[in-house]
Amino acid sequence: MIKCSCEERFSDSVILRRRSRRRISAGILRPLRGLRMTPLLLFLLPAWVFAGSITGTIKFTGTPPEPEQISMDADPICASLHVEPVYAETVVVNDNGTLRNVFVYVKSGLEERTFSVPGEPAGIDQKGCHYEPHVLGIQTGQELEIRNSDATLHNVHSLAQNSKPFNLGMPIQGMKLKKKFENSEIMAKFKCDVHPWMNAYIGVLDHPHFSVSGSDGAFEISDLPAGDYVVEAWHEKYGTQEQTVTVTEAEPVVVEFMFQAT
Question: Is 219 exposed, middle or buried (0-12, 13-18, 19+ CB in 10 A)?
Fold first, then answer.
């Protein structure tokens, strides 16, 4: 089976950092209760102090499909990288009955706002002859660093519909490329023409409010201004679901999506 990736560990650290922010925010605001919030005071406080968040879980019901085992015999290098069987990540149901690799994002409610582009690139790796991570999010204009960690040829083929597609060979282990997406898209598909079992999906948005369910089925979208939002959950096999939520600065909004086997 596919083991926990660096991206999952990174996601865990992000969640811990966001929770720490909420605790700090409460600590900052508690002594200020009862005080008149002057424009100067509001200006001096960081914006995330007044932000809310959406947390939740992606549940799965029904009998999941049998995992599809991948044969890598066509490339001996790929086959040699795995002692145990490797399975497609199209449907990954966790031990706790939740669904992994669901892209959750704010679909509407942020139209009047603009967001700076992160200076740090997002990343996707070709490792063990599959993409890590299988699903990720990125902002328009943000760099995507594409890595080849394998000692074999990979071909990264972007099938983006709203941005300029690309199709590039990466024959050298350790090779890196950087690309950007100009326009939003749910979702831009990646594939490898050399290894047809390799694919990944990238959610491209003009804002940073998105998340991907992990090994526990959980997600978190933080630093949201108070307001009403439509939140969508996307899965490559089971499609999309939407919910309307109202975010406040008090407590996180808890949302649950339920996907059913077909």
Answer: buried
